[in-house]
Amino acid sequence: MLRKYWVLLKVNWSLVLEYRAGMVIWVLANTLPLVMLAVWISIADAGPVGNYGAAEFTAYYLALLFVRQMTSVWVAWELDYDIRMGELSPKLLRPIDPIHNHMALHLADKIFRLFTVVPLILLAAVVVPGVAYPTDPVTVALFLLSTACALAIRFMIQYSVGLLSFWITQSLAINEMLYAGMVMFGGVIAPLELFPPAAGRLAAMLPFRYMLSLPVELLLGRLTGSERLAALGIQILWLAVCIGIYRLLWRIGLKHYSAVGA
Fold this sequence. Notes:
Layout: H1 2-18, H2 20-29, H3 32-44, H4 54-70, H5 75-85, H6 88-92, H7 98-116, H8 118-127, H9 137-163, H10 171-185, H11 197-205, H12 213-219, H13 225-259
Helix pairs in contact: 1-7, 3-4, 4-8, 4-12, 5-9, 9-10, 9-12, 9-13
């Protein structure tokens, strides 16, 4: 399997480089955190908002920009097209589950983004005064682990949404609703600490925090030791739930796909 993944990764890396101009445009278009950063810095000019001043908002949204780039997923669009147009049929004849090719493409994309986005974020963090991130190994390791889990959750959720195309023709509308939920409750509009208590408790139960905001909270030291473990436990639980939903939809959907002779 490792050899197969290596081959898939090389093939998809070549594909990413072939369309590198389009990838760069997509990367640059995915900068909503910078828009919100400008909004909150202008508000913070009149005084701190909660525990956030201009430097804290900058550190938060630069880290959020990194996590957002590292967790970008578009597999729902690919699956929707493959299922509706019958392109899934030849892929089912290959000796490897189609999900692995999608995963390899997304991993190749993340490598590309590391080379294009990370230098810009690091430059901004150095240039802007007052921005600092913890460098202790435990915090960095938890941040990277949580970011990887966030990517996996978003991928599995989108894959499950794409699989709904076995039954409905508007699965992408559901994906747009989930995206709106992530923008609202994933820490893009504002850090979850600034939410009213009731909204904050709701955000802690929904999956959106664990798709985007949690890695940033861990990196910035916004959680205590016990809170970190609890939040990571919930994140892993959400990942397990998403994997279970994907496996169920895939198994049932394939039977439906065969039944209609697609």
